[in-house]
């Protein structure tokens, strides 16, 4: 069996590649620049077991030729400008790339390889602020950032192609998930790195925006299992993948600082770091994924946090 992963240089791409290789599936990773494929594949020991090719996902001809040539069993479309904060700074490029690349892949599947099954990465950000928690698959979308708007468009495109053309295309609505491979500009890695810098005297304070918001955080290596299960199902569908509970950013920082014996007065709130619009609390209902996909998840975020901290300190951090 053959799979294409777009965004293989990112966090999820690396963990997914490792799982697919272990299942005996031939993996081709699509990157925008062959010279920059990140550290994830090397760190997980699968760099030599995947084919890497450079393509412009925004170019329909390149994608058509790729799909015609490979006729893959599965495509996992993970490539995206994935940061909410960045999307407020660069709304045009975020929306253009995220939506256009997804549409190119759907069109290529429809025209040249209708048997290919697609996993499309969408996001809990699509739901925005909701009055009824937990969020489930049929909660109305209310996107509150350019990133969320781009992912909502991808979600609707996937549904439309599934219903109109009877394709096995699936939208994975993932809530925040973390690992040692998460890029350092994202919240969890940012606070882990800064906490270590404070502990080792390289920095005085941790400066943060609104930390009284709550999010549903999970563990990336477990979440990629659900992506594979979706494309292996007899029928295509959309699934929420989440831990099922939210934790405040403040409690995460406090846990980390206490774990490392750092005074809590090293935390400074900077209102300039607040976002133009912010979701206060969000958590999902993973019962459909557990029941229908047989996906198993039972790990608290404090355990994940400690695990990532130790892994990062041992393998990536230089004190
Ligand atoms: P990530 O680490 O930020 O990886 C994003 C990937 O997309 C990277 O391989 C990146 O390539 C690629 N990419 C970005 N802009 C591109 C462009 N213009 N052209 C080609 N490739 C581009 O993201 P992740 O955490 O693995 O997430 C995977 C997917 O799940 C993303 O679509 C994300 O939006 C979605 N998602 C993630 C989370 C989460 O908590 N992690 C939650 C919900 C949904 P470079 O290495 O070249 O930059």
Q: Top keywords for this entry?
A:
UDP-galactose 4-epimerase, domain 1; two-stranded parallel ribbon; Rossmann fold; alpha/beta; 319 residues; seven-stranded parallel sheet; 11 helices; single chain
Question: What features would you describe in this structure?
Answer:
There is one protein chain. The protein has 319 residues and is α/β, with parallel strands linked by helices. The chain has two domains: 2-177 and 219-241, Rossmann fold; 183-216 and 245-283 and 300-315, UDP-galactose 4-epimerase, domain 1, CATH 3.90.25.10. The protein has eleven helices and 13 strands. The mean pLDDT is 97. Bound molecules: NADP nicotinamide-adenine-dinucleotide phosphate. NADP nicotinamide-adenine-dinucleotide phosphate binds next to α1 and β5. Residues 7, 9-13, 31-32, 36, 38, 57, 78-82, 97, 121, 123, 174, 176-177, 183 line the site of NADP nicotinamide-adenine-dinucleotide phosphate.
